[in-house]
Structures are given as C-alpha cells and as structure tokens.
Structure to design on (110 residues):
C-alpha cells in the first residue's frame, strides 16, 4: 500500500492504482507468458545454445511471476521480492543474447 500511497503523493497514476493490485498481477503474469513465447523467436538464427539458455531463464521468470496471481496488496509483491528477481533474470537473458549473438558472429555454424 505504501508504494501506491507514494505514487499518489507524487501525482502518478499507476496501473495498480487504476485497476487494482490483483488485476495488475494477472496482467503481469500474462505479459510474462507473452514475453516467454516471443523469447523463443531468436532460436531461429541463434540455435540450440540460445534455446537452452533462454529456456532456463524463461522458466525462472514464470516461476517468479506466478505468485503475483495470489497477491492482493503491494506489500505481498514487495515481500516476495519479485521485482528484484525479475531484474536479475532480465540481466541474465540479456547476457544470453550477447553471448549467443557473439558466438554467431565469431563462430558461425553455417
């Protein structure tokens, strides 16, 4: 609740304020599913090394976001540490993009 109070005090209107924390959690989970699906597209040009790495990260992202469906308060989200987990997982995904693209550039399989 204090996050929402802080946003309101700053004049911001955030998604949780507009539609509620429960609905925001569902949107976050739905967005994560879409992101996971889209993340497999680069497999077409980066192949199996990318697929293996990104599949692990995708599973971790879905595992991290799943509890948001049950959250009814901002404190619940904060206590789960989901935002921190997602930041680290996004960094790992970017590292996988970087490594697999470098492999493709410097050691092409074709």
């Amino acid at each position: 609740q204090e996050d929402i109070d802080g946003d309101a005090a700053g004049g911001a209107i955030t998604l949780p304020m507009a539609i509620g924390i429960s609905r925001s959690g569902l949107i976050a989970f739905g967005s994560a599913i879409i992101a996971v699906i889209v993340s497999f597209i680069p497999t077409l040009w980066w192949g199996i090394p990318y697929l293996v790495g990104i599949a692990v990260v995708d599973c971790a992202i879905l595992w991290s976001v799943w509890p948001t469906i049950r959250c009814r308060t901002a404190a619940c989200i904060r206590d789960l540490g989901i935002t921190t987990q997602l930041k680290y997982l996004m960094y790992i995904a970017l590292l996988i993009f970087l490594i697999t693209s470098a492999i493709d550039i410097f050691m092409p399989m074709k």
